[in-house]
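quick one before i forget lol
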Amino acid sequence: MPAPDPPAKRHLLWWVVALVALVAALLIGAAWQALARTPGDPDALRGPMALYAMLASLVFAGAAVAFYRLLAARYPDASASLARDVRALLEAKTLDRGLRVPPRHGLGDLPAALESLVDALRSARRETVRAMATATARTEQEKGWLELILLELVPQAVVVCNLDHRILLYNQATGRLFRDHPALGLGRSLLELLGGQALGHALEGLELRHKSGRRDLSSAFVCATSDATRMLQARIALVRDAGGDANGYALSLEDISTELEGRRAGEALRRALGTELRGPLANLRAAAEIVAGQPNLGGEERRAFETVLTSESQRLSDALDRLAESAEEHAAAAWPMVEIHSPDLFSLAAHRLQRDHGLTLSVAGDPEWLIGDSQVLLLALCGLAEAIGAHAGVSELEIAAGQEHKRSFVEVRWQGQAAPSGVIDDWLDLPLAALGDTSIRDVLERHGAEPWSRPAGAGRHALHIPLQTAQAPDLVQTVAPAHPELYDFDLMYARSFTGDLGERRLKELAYVVFDTETTGLRPAAGDEIISIAAVRVTQGRVIENEVFDQLVHPGRPIPKDSMRFHGISDEMVSAMPPITATLPRFHAFAGDAVLVAHNAAFDMKFIKLKEPQCGVEFDNPVVDTLLLALLVEGPDEDLTLDGLSERCGVQIVARHSARGDALVTAHVLVHLLDRLEARGIRTFQEVMHATGMQEALRLRAQHF
């Protein structure tokens, strides 16, 4: 439970001192009165002396209280401050901060002795951590290898869930597959991403196999994404605990929408061959037979049949062109293609040409992302460069990539004579020894590329090779941890997510810690949100790579006073989505987690006012770290986010930005949860009751 309020204890001590002083004064007054009596008239001085004794006692008591207050002001209540710091060090998991003792504390050697004790505890904890690190070093190394293989190198999306369908692990490919859907995250339900019927059917079948003692505990199935826009090929396998009981499952997922689309295109092509071409061919045949069978046809009739022959020939030619284009697209889609960064492709080509043929290939222009089979495309480019060098009699070539008419291209340039189309055809027919009978033409056709020659200025010529365009993959996040936390197997052993919230342990809950930046401090008066950021906290850990971060167009100018505070200008939000598009995405990101903010009443007031307009309702429980800190540390401490982060040892990055403040608040929350647990406050119901959270938030919201 929280410690008593130190100021209240100090005030109580003042009254005790005053009472003692009063009693002492009364006793002194009574003694003085007794001594002042005369033998002749024992009652003569009793009345005046009693009055003098009372006045003297009051003066004495007042002087004692004033003296004590003077001492208290000059010598602060160091014992209370020392007690708070010691309690904080014992409750927190880290011992980075020292004891704060005023210079004039009047406690003698006690602070120094306590500091020595804390140093000994720090040393013991360091030794424990060092021993644990040594013991687990090999395990961590092996885990790192598995992480690298699973999270980075496995091309398929991989997800591991417990039997409640809560995500325990996912790899980078999963994020790409679901296009960083806001509902993708540790502890979130997979059913928010996948249709549950096919998954449930496959899981039920595996559980029946497991109960019957069969060992083949994996199967394949096809399912749709939750928005029914894509089809996925899935393979599921049961995960068993040490006792052999099923406690989860693993899924590999692959998008087969393109493959299905290719199959549909192939079927359409086959139908077209049977229908679209049959009509023009029949008309051509009939017209040709009539013309051939009646050589003496008159002028008008003959011209009519010639018109039929011409129009149907054109119709047939157009149909063949469409079918050829469709077939090329179908063939290109069926060939395995990946994103290629042009500098990687060009540097390897330059190395091989220099090594094998003595040709120098220099790279020009800006980098470009291409789509292709990098290995065979490399062989084709090297073959063309070798042919160009031999044709032009040069040993230096230039290669560049760019975009033109919404398509990417590669150009090989040289100084010297041009290459006629016949020469280019000969180059394209050259075989690639590493690919057997495959020619350069075959490779380029697979890539949907038809090269041609064009002047490149200053006596130079270029072989222009159009290729498919790729969007640059999101390889680097703006702020990301060194090792993305994409798994948490502690969730496997956590209690069911469907239990009563109040009885759940604080560390078992999923939190979304968020912060907003606004145009001002008065939501009811028209101020608007201009930025929302949030980060997930699961099993007492901040998952820094699961972040929501979005600037918002407020629909009104941002005041200069607010701009100086958070640094967000009108230009920065001019192209950003409005709150009606942003708040539903944040709602999906939050899911059923507990919402957490510092001074949460302020941020929630903005959100609640926008719910009707945005068509969402945040019925999540809300926790305010300000109230948690008040419970843990008391009102004498600095409870601002800066003060808390300093005492918790949390590094502040990008203060007064929504993302930076959300991350700081998340780490402060983890620190406070540790301290609450050390005090015996372990469940959500206990912390809500101890802080009066709901009523306090309601009262605070009335001020905004």
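fyi The chain has 22 helices and 17 strands.
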